């Protein structure tokens, strides 16, 4: 018979995401979630201790003379099964981590519990794209492309306009689109390539170089600017380098002030649990919402793919009526 803790653990198995703040290593986030889940599992009401039958000596008063040893059967709890002896029911729980974020980045971090680790591996075998928000600043170049690095060059930026920035972004996006087609290993003149492009399945097979599938400026107020990026197989260091290269293309310099992931596959910022909600009950709710979203998306896909066929009865009636008409003509 499953204990309450085991029943709760079964509800915890699945995928969910948390919001990783800036300046915190992803390992610390995972360890904090593991600790909170273990506390929640072991805090569930435990089952009563099993009983065993023992023969105990009946107490004898001082006034009575001893007449021999008398025993009586009694039911007593098995102390060897007590939690103070056996320890907590769950002493370790495995929480898997999806596409990681470095310590200086923030945003959506996908985690998995139990059988969810297998589902996460299946998820990342597909062409999962991710969205980021990059904050940049013109005028400075650093050794690690971030604003906290050692400054190696300073330049002017008064000549930069949003139109010039948009042209550079369009050029970079066009170059990455060519790379996307090159890594797809599909004949671009074939029907297969057309169908894959319509369904949004055109992408690199397996691992490839980082590819930017979308790039646009959503805020421009020199020297500060903000970019929205959609990408594949990226790292946060690569995204900071992109900001640096944009500054060079504009005959200036630029450093990245922040990297924030806003989407990782099906997970968005609205799904991410903040630090105060890294509890077992909130994780169970997040996993349930994720499964309901996936099931709803799957049902919509089935509805689109289903072709309505005329019922067999109407086809039979039509055939019989046609035969009757032919009979009257003949």
From TrEMBL:
UniProt record, GO biological process: pseudouridine synthesis; RNA processing
Superkingdom: Eukaryota
Positions of the Pseudouridine synthase II N-terminal domain: 92-236
Molecular function terms from GO: pseudouridine synthase activity; RNA binding
Pfam families hit by this protein: TruB_N (PF01509)
InterPro entries: PsdUridine_synth_cat_dom_sf, PsdUridine_synth_N, Trub2
Family designation: Belongs to the pseudouridine synthase TruB family.
Name the UniProt record assigns to this protein: Pseudouridine synthase II N-terminal domain-containing protein
């Amino acid at each position: 018979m499953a204990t309450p803790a085991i029943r709760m653990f079964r509800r915890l198995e699945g995928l969910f995401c948390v919001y990783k703040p800036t300046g915190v290593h992803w390992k610390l986030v995972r360890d904090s979630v593991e600790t909170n889940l273990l506390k929640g599992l072991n805090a569930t009401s435990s089952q009563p201790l099993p009983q065993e039958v023992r023969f105990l000596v009946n107490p004898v008063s001082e006034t009575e003379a001893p007449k021999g040893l008398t025993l009586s059967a009694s039911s007593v709890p098995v102390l060897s099964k007590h939690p103070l002896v056996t320890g907590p029911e769950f002493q370790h729980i495995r929480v898997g981590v999806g596409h990681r974020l470095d310590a200086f980045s923030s945003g959506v971090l996908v985690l998995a519990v139990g059988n969810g680790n297998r589902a996460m591996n299946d998820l990342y075998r597909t062409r999962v794209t991710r969205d980021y928000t990059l904050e940049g600043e013109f005028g400075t170049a650093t050794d690690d492309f971030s604003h906290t690095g050692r400054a190696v060059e300073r330049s002017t930026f008064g000549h930069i306009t949003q139109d010039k920035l948009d042209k550079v972004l369009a050029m970079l996006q066009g170059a990455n689109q060519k790379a996307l087609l090159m890594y797809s290993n599909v004949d671009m003149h074939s029907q297969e390539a057309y169908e894959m492009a319509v369904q949004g399945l055109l992408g690199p097979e397996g691992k490839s170089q980082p590819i930017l599938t979308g790039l646009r400026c959503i805020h421009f107020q020199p020297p500060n600017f903000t970019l929205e990026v959609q990408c594949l197989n990226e790292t946060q260091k690569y995204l900071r380098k992109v900001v640096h290269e944009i500054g060079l293309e504009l005959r200036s310099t630029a450093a990245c002030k922040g990297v924030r992931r806003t989407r990782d596959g099906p997970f968005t910022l609205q799904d991410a649990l903040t630090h105060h909600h890294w509890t077992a009950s909130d994780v169970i709710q997040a996993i349930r919402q994720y499964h309901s979203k996936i099931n709803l998306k799957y049902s919509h896909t089935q509805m689109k793919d289903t072709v309505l066929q005329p019922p067999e009865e109407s086809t039979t009636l039509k055939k019989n009526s046609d035969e009757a008409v032919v009979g009257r003509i003949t």
